[in-house]
Amino acid sequence: MFYRPQDGHGLPHNPFNALITPRPIGWISTRDGQGRDNLSPYSFFNGAAYDPPQVMFSSTGSKPDVGDTKDNVANIRETGVFCVNVCSVAHKDAMNASSATLPHGTDEFEYAGLDKVDCELIACSRVANAPASLECKMTQIIRIEGPSNFVVMGEVLGIHMRDDCIVDGKFDATKYIPLSRMGYRDYAAVREVFEMARPDD
């Protein structure tokens, strides 16, 4: 099968995001200028560079009570900071609850029943028992094709890692089982890990 997205695919469900899998989930927390916390998952998320460490996520769609985007991007525009919380399988239900479309200013930490703590370097909350959290300073917000599509770039200023996830000097993802996004409404638990040396190692 071949199709051009502009012409449509003819299938009952859009296959596009089922082709780019598995995708890490950026569980992004922000705080607006009035001190109200927000937490939402983004599956268009990844690391972008090592030195300095940088991350990116894309936000698609908008809310009538925010304007041309959603709460987190609006908050980042206002404050210039955000936190990426690593999402484990143990957090799957809370992560899903935090994806609900709620009125602007609603605290998704409370809505999803999550404990939160203040970040160290930025004015923002983070998920208290997340395997890791990355405190970030926004460096760019890039508008891309489409009415409400934005890519947010951030430099990582500080990193929290749960002590039980550090084994023999390495951050061990098998200690918390990462949750990743597949296509449609499907998710995957990353339980099998193997090592391969690069040819030039």
From TrEMBL:
<dbReference type="InterPro" id="IPR002563">
    <property type="entry name" value="Flavin_Rdtase-like_dom"/>
</dbReference>
<dbReference type="GO" id="GO:0010181">
    <property type="term" value="F:FMN binding"/>
</dbReference>
<dbReference type="InterPro" id="IPR012349">
    <property type="entry name" value="Split_barrel_FMN-bd"/>
</dbReference>
<dbReference type="Pfam" id="PF01613">
    <property type="entry name" value="Flavin_Reduct"/>
</dbReference>
<protein>
    <submittedName>
        <fullName>NADH-FMN oxidoreductase RutF, flavin reductase (DIM6/NTAB) family</fullName>
    </submittedName>
</protein>
<feature type="domain" description="Flavin reductase like">
    <location>
        <begin position="18"/>
        <end position="173"/>
    </location>
</feature>
<dbReference type="GO" id="GO:0016646">
    <property type="term" value="F:oxidoreductase activity, acting on the CH-NH group of donors, NAD or NADP as acceptor"/>
</dbReference>
